[in-house]
């Protein structure tokens, strides 16, 4: 069956009732099985589990053959400009520390594939006790519903030694967060454009970036965005 990101979320959360369920992470080599208590493999394991679950549930999808390239899954096998799905996960006790996208790569990609702005992010939060994992919550979000401003730049980023590396999420699920997620795609694009103006490495080449992104978005989607 063909499902959109939101329909997939509904099936996973409301029908399958994944939230609150537990899993055990073990590894077996020959006749020795060990319990895995480290968290550095959890993200990959959850993504592999999701892939198998979609196959069992007969959900149509195509996996990206390059795991380093966005997105993780295409939910529309016949039109890979629609229903792009990226899967993220984080430790509930630590908060979201994952990257939404590489800053330079993302900004450059929007010049030719601006439809990726409509991609869905399926996010799992989990808690681990020993090798037992519990799914605490699941969300389906657009990038502008995860990204937020920061005290340094109009978009929260990971910056080291004055070099921007990645776009980072805020704590979108907390009412106490100082910086709230953006309210719209247009607001996110405006903040991303302003970040590029403020960032010395992109300031001098940013003159037509936003206009070119908006033009490409309209060419792919037929929607004309108004961004100030």
UniProtKB/TrEMBL annotation:
- Which GO molecular function annotations are given, in alphabetical order? type II site-specific deoxyribonuclease activity
One Pfam match: RE_NgoBV
Q: Which domain of life is it from?
A: Bacteria
Protein name in the entry: Restriction endonuclease
Q: Which organism is it from?
A: Pelobium manganitolerans
């Amino acid at each position: 069956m063909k499902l959109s990101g939101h329909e997939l979320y509904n099936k996973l959360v409301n029908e399958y009732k994944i939230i609150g369920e537990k899993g055990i992470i073990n590894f077996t080599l020959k006749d020795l099985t060990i319990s895995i208590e480290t968290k550095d493999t959890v993200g990959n394991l959850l993504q592999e589990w999701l892939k198998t679950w979609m196959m069992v549930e007969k959900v149509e999808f195509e996996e990206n053959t390059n795991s380093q390239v966005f997105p993780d899954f295409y939910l529309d096998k016949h039109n890979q400009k629609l229903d792009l799905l990226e899967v993220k996960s984080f430790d509930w006790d630590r908060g979201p520390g994952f990257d939404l996208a590489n800053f330079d790569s993302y900004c450059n990609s929007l010049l030719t594939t601006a439809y990726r702005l409509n991609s869905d992010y399926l996010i799992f939060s989990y808690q681990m006790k020993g090798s037992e994992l519990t799914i605490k919550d699941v969300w389906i979000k657009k990038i502008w519903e995860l990204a937020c401003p920061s005290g340094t730049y109009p978009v929260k980023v990971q910056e080291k030694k004055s070099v921007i590396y990645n776009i980072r999420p805020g704590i979108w699920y907390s009412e106490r967060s100082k910086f709230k997620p953006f309210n719209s795609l247009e607001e996110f694009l405006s903040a991303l454009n302003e970040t590029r103006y403020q960032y010395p490495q992109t300031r001098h080449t940013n003159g037509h970036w936003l206009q070119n992104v908006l033009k490409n978005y309209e060419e792919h989607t037929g929607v004309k965005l108004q961004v100030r």
